[in-house]
Design goal:
This protein is mainly beta. The protein is 4% helix and 41% strand. The strands form two sheets. The protein has a four-stranded antiparallel sheet. The protein has a three-stranded antiparallel sheet with strand order 5-6-7, with no helix packed on it.
């Protein structure tokens, strides 16, 4: 198998608080159901960004929420480009258009 060398070029930058500590964890880069999310924890907050198809920006959608308490919070991509976030007693669905269900 041969691979063609393709040069990389930086086209956009954006910050995501907590990303440095999140990299290397299995749940920091979520790829599923046609959506690509980066999820990081910044103190008592969770920050999530869906990677954009537009090369002039990094994230097409951003979400940030406060952790409900000391319990763990889990996030997973859902069909249609959304992100489901579950805690000990709740589930929140962040739709691809930014609305919350």
């Amino acid at each position: 198998m041969e691979y063609e060398a393709v040069p990389a070029r930086l086209t956009a930058t954006q910050e995501l608080p907590g990303l440095g500590a999140a990299l290397g964890r299995l749940d920091s880069f979520l790829v599923r159901d046609g959506a690509h999310w980066i999820v990081a924890r910044d103190g008592a907050r969770v920050e999530a960004g869906r990677l954009s198809r537009d090369t002039s920006t990094v994230f097409g959608v951003r979400h940030s929420w406060r952790l409900p308490g000391p319990d763990r919070v889990y996030a997973t991509p859902v069909p249609g480009g959304g992100l489901a976030v579950s805690g000990i007693d709740s589930v929140t669905l962040h739709e691809a258009d930014g609305s919350i269900r």
